[in-house]
Amino acid sequence: GKLVTVKYLRLDRYHHRFPQALTCNTPLKPSNTHMNSMSHLRLRTGLANSQVGS
């Protein structure tokens, strides 16, 4: 139950702020085996809905 505030960055501003991101090619991994953080991402991107019919 902690409040988190986020701010959207346009891609050009993100790369200006984090220039090393331009050359990164390793995907992010969940920080634990419960995949708590990844389940929220899956729900927000619509991947959960696309897997319902599978």
Structural summary, described in words:
The chain has 54 residues and is mainly α. It is built from three helices and no strands. The protein has helices spanning 11-17, 36-45, 47-52. It is flat and about 30 Å long. The model has no long low-confidence stretch (mean pLDDT 75).
- State the shape: flat
Rounded to the nearest angstrom, the radius of gyration is 15 Å
> What proportion strand?
under 5%
Query: How many β strands by DSSP?
Result: 0
| Mean pLDDT level | 75
Based on secondary structure, the structural category is mainly alpha
Give the CA-CA distance, first to last residue: 33 Å
Helix/strand order: HHH
Low-confidence stretches: none
What's the helical proportion of residues? 40-55%
Describe the largest sheet.
Answer: none
- Per DSSP, the total helix count is 3
Topology:
Elements lengths: L10 H7 L18 H10 L1 H6 L2
Organism: Equus caballus (Horse)
Protein name: Inner nuclear membrane protein Man1-like protein
Keywords summarizing the entry:
54 residues, mainly alpha, flat, Inner nuclear membrane protein Man1-like protein
Concise description?
The chain is mainly α and 54 residues long. It has 3 helices and no strands.
